[in-house]
Amino acid sequence: MTERAMRIALVAMAAGMLLSLFGVLAWPGRPQRPDDPKKLAAWLAEHPADWTAASDLTEAALDLDLPSRFELWHRAHDHALMLAPQRAQPRTAFVRSGFFHWYELDDAGRQQVLAEAIPILHDSQTFYTLAPVVWRLTRDFAYLRRASGGDYSSLTRLRDIAATNGLFSEYRDLRDRAVARRTVELDAKTAGNAPFDPTEYVRLDANHDDEPLLLRVLTEFHDHPIEKRPSNPLALDRLIDYAIRHHLQPLDGLQYAVRDSTFASAAQRARLAVAFGDLKNANIIESAANIDDSPAWNAYLSERAAYERARGDAVFATAYAARASLMRAKQLAWSGRCNGDHVCTSAQRDVLVASPAPYAITLARAAGDEVPPYVEVYVDDARIGEAPIASQQTFTSGTLAPGPHRVYVRVVNPFTRNLAQRRVQVLRDSP
């Protein structure tokens, strides 16, 4: 093709495109779908393939002041579902309108809404939002369990609903399932190739039940050492605290956290440095920090004293032990209590055992509704007992070795359905 012929072809193409543009601009445009439900019904009669209109009519039908509104609701939904069976919008519109008009529906209508809601509730975020609403409407916990997708977020939502409403056997089962599921989800992440932050899987109140999960997290850091600030430094604090107190290994994947002040608190980083035998960085952190009487700094002083004693430096061992002893009195008092001697959400203290003996604590109900406060009691992160406190209850551990032990009391359903505070009172504990 000659240059002249090429130029003519390009001009013709441009002219054609310009004419097409004029045609589009001159087109009167597609009629707009009306918003009014009655007009929308007429629109759908003229445009029977418009599944979006059928979905919109489904959502609006029950708002109409018509004797046939329930029939219209069902027919519009059936039509939308026939046209778009794989799309979420037809089911979502039906379920949303059904829940909004729940008390106007007959049993068959309610059952259809619940059946259509199951695929929607399988989504974790949707379940987390809607599960409390569905529970208030139906009081059918077995349905919620069936509708749940079984992921960690959904299981914890179910667990909390069960605890709040006095379904304590369900609570215990879901608590254990959630811990197991969290481990499964972590294993799936570690098997993939996408980078992720393992500390996202560490609960801030992690206890002995979480230990297999924490070991997996430490193993993941061993294979892929931490090199950037975690999304939640408090979770890394909890991981370091639990791992050091319970002698979990490997710790080497956390080594970079010692040198970066943004990764974790100063106290936990100092403890980690001592665990590595890195006294240089332990001294740097200690000298730059504002050491308070928190449990973390008390633990650091005690662990530093033990380390100095083990390496034969009696002077430093004595000095650190003396500082830890002065701070110990603070740890022996309860922290986290409310209204004097009450526990609203959680409280903890250390106990000093002089000779092998069990620990016992007696708790009494102080405030709540018809559902009693449900309490878990932990010693050194291991649960020694749990029960609803209808009047009062005593929890006793096994025999404890001489030395300090950490006691933690948790109310797992701290708020009633009306958001009033449930509380328990610490009547006595020993030693």
Explain this structure to me?
This protein has 431 residues and is α+β, with helices and mostly antiparallel strands. It has four domains: 37-178, Serine Threonine Protein Phosphatase 5, Tetratricopeptide repeat (Alpha Horseshoe), CATH 1.25.40; 195-286, no CATH class; 290-331; 342-430, Sandwich (Jelly Rolls). Helix content is 54%, strand content 14%. It is built from 17 helices and eight strands. It has helices at residues 3-26, 37-46, 51-61, 69-83, 89-100, 107-121, 124-138, 141-147, 152-164, 168-191, 211-223, 233-245, 255-259, 266-275, 279-288, 295-310, 314-332, and strands at 342-343, 346-353, 357-367, 374-379, 382-388, 392-400, 403-411, 423-430. It has a four-stranded antiparallel β-sheet with strand order 1-8-3-6, with no helix packed on it. It has a four-stranded antiparallel β-sheet with strand order 2-7-4-5. β4 and β5 (382-388) form a beta hairpin. α16 (295-310) packs antiparallel against α17 (314-332). It is flat and about 95 Å long. Residues 21-28 have low confidence and may be disordered.
Measure the end-to-end span.
Answer: 102 Å
Q: Tell me the series of helices and strands, N- to C-terminal.
A: HHHHHHHHHHHHHHHHHEEEEEEEE
Count of distinct strands:
8
Shape-level CATH architecture of the largest domain: Alpha Horseshoe
By DSSP (H or I, 4+ residues per run), the number of helices equals 17
